[in-house]
Amino acid sequence: MKSYVKIYGPPMMKALKTLQKIAIGMPEVCIMDTTIEAASIPTAGPSMGGPGFALDSPEEVMTFFTDVGDISEERCDTIISKSGESVGEFDFYFEWFQKPNMAQIENLINKIDEALEPIGVKYTLTTK
């Protein structure tokens, strides 16, 4: 199950980095966003199990998240979605490892509200 975020208004990069920071502290999710997709490089074809990413080692992931905040090597292994699904019309998604309950979704909304309010962007959240 994924919670998709659509961001409205600049500063887009600051909003994406803020959402990444939220995700680092949520071990129950992995993520994908437009900046991670842009950094992706097909390194494996379908015969090798699907698309690979340039961010395929903990060291590369740690470097990518350097300006976001502290991230453990263990979290580097789980933070980026391996589903291969694009963000599509959205800017970001939180992919839940297990189906979330309403309290978890409400907690995510509260975290996003608090984090994005000072930035001044609006967003929508769609969970499906």
Describe the structure.
This protein has 128 residues and is α+β, with helices and mostly antiparallel strands. 34% of the residues lie in helices and 18% in strands. It has five helices and four strands; from the N terminus they run E-H-E-H-H-H-E-H-E. The chain has helices spanning 12-24, 34-38, 58-64, 73-76, 102-116, and strands at residues 2-8, 29-33, 92-96, 122-127. The chain has a four-stranded antiparallel beta sheet. It starts with a strand and ends with a strand. The model is unreliable at 44-53 (pLDDT under 50).
Order of helices and strands: EHEHHHEHE
Radius of gyration: 14 Å
Give the quaternary arrangement of the chains.
single chain
Biggest sheet: strand arrangement = 2-3-1-4
Major pleated sheet: 4 strands, antiparallel
List its traits.
single chain, 128 residues, alpha+beta, 5 helices, 34% helix
State the gist of this model.
The protein has 128 residues and is an alpha+beta fold.
Strands, helices and their partners?
Layout: E1 2-8, H1 12-24, E2 29-33, H2 34-38, H3 58-64, H4 73-76, E3 92-96, H5 102-116, E4 122-127
Antiparallel strand pairs: 1-3, 1-4, 2-3
Helix pairs in contact: 1-5
